[in-house]
Amino acid sequence: MMPSMRRFLAAACSLLALPFFALPAAAAATPGSLIKASGPAVYYLATDGKRYVFPNEKTYRTWYADFSTVKTVSDAQLAAIAIGGNVTCRPGVRMLKIATDPRVYAVASGGTLRPVASEAAAATLYGSAWAQAVDDLPDSFFVNYKTGAAVNGAADFDPTGERVASPTIAEDRDLAPDWGGADPTKLALGDGKHVSSPQKGSVYSCQTSFNGGGAFADGPWIHGSTWDLTEKAHVDGNVPWPAASFSMTLSGANRTITTNGLPYGHLTGTYPIAATDDAYQYDRNPNSIKSQAFSFTLPAVPAVAASPSCVGGEVGISVTGVPIFNGFDAGGRDAVAHELQDGCGGHPQSSGIYHYHGGSGCV
């Protein structure tokens, strides 16, 4: 590695300093990506729509072998993504110690430091050369971790098991989506699940006639009656929306939400979908994202209605200011499965309204 690869910025909150290297402008930063702007700092873009800081190169190296997957975004795009915190070392890879504490700690899931009771215990976990598996942790970063029970031997701590249990930063920090027991590789397809009267397992839709539209070809993530979210393509791009606005106020029994519909706090993909985007093979959404003027007055304390009523196209509003549409595309199919959205789960319709059809990892 060149010397410049090992230089670090000295600042109140140290950031991982890497050399500047240009990546294609089209590189898409989706949740799970490593990103950087014009400066040397590299961040992990998580499923919660925030970026997480690597305190130093040693922390980075517990997760990644090199920097080949880092994607470059503009300074404006980076500034639009809030910082969520610091990344902690990957569990099971290295042990840690701080200058003001003689103890050596094993790193467990969730940034948990577990004091290793003895040199014999350390040797059991990491071999006779265990001291070479210890990194010094600056005192200022100790607060990123929490402490757990002592480790007396192999029965208390399995380095390999810890690594396997935390394959990504999102999963280690519990930022990964909670599927509630569902298998994201075999999600039930909701095509045609619209009904004209209340029925469990379907959507009581005000619209009963669907005339087509949306994605023109099924992607390889569609498998008969199920689909695989982990295989699905996303619309590329990292477009910031500095003019986004959102407010929510309470007045008596009412809650008023005002938004211009532009995503407040996250980036979007590039729309219309470019012919160079892999999403274009399945969905050629020609629409652009446009500012809107929305104002909703709702009960401050919602109550269950006396009887069910059908839902229209718009079914909710997110705290990002983005409308939530029902689960169907223009053809009455499962919109989340068939249509192509960006990394935050949104896309625009013909009037330029950027919207979600389901949950967004960026909210």
Can you give a write-up of this model?
This protein has helices spanning 57-63, 75-79, 119-126, 139-142, 159-165, 169-172, 335-338; strands at 34-36, 43-45, 51-53, 70-72, 83-86, 95-98, 101-108, 112-115, 134-136, 146-147, 187-188, 194-195, 203-204, 222-223, 226-227, 246-251, 254-259, 294-299, 314-317, 323-325, 346-348, 354-356. The protein has seven helices and 22 strands. The protein has 363 residues and is α/β, with parallel strands linked by helices. A hairpin with a 5-residue loop joins strand 2 (43-45) and strand 3. The strands form seven sheets. A five-stranded mixed sheet has the order 4-1-2-3-5, with no helix packed on it.
Give the secondary structure arrangement, pairings included:
Layout: E1 34-36, E2 43-45, E3 51-53, H1 57-63, E4 70-72, H2 75-79, E5 83-86, E6 95-98, E7 101-108, E8 112-115, H3 119-126, E9 134-136, H4 139-142, E10 146-147, H5 159-165, H6 169-172, E11 187-188, E12 194-195, E13 203-204, E14 222-223, E15 226-227, E16 246-251, E17 254-259, E18 294-299, E19 314-317, E20 323-325, H7 335-338, E21 346-348, E22 354-356
Parallel strand pairs: 1-4, 3-5, 6-9, 8-10, 12-13
Antiparallel strand pairs: 1-2, 2-3, 6-7, 7-8, 11-15, 14-15, 16-17, 17-18, 19-20, 21-22
Shape, per Cα inertia axes: elongated
Q: Would you report the number of β strands?
A: 22
How much of the sequence is in beta strands?
15-25%
What is the C-alpha radius of gyration, as a whole number of Å? 24 Å
| N-C termini distance | 38 Å
Structural class: alpha/beta
- Largest beta sheet: strand ordering: 4-1-2-3-5
Q: Catalogue the unreliable spans.
A: 1-27
User: Oligomer, anyone?
Assistant: single chain
Can you give the helix content as a percent range? 10-25%
Mean pLDDT: 87
What is the helix tally? Answer: 7
Major β-sheet, in short?
5 strands, mixed
* Series of secondary-structure elements, N-terminal to C-terminal: EEEHEHEEEEHEHEHHEEEEEEEEEEHEE
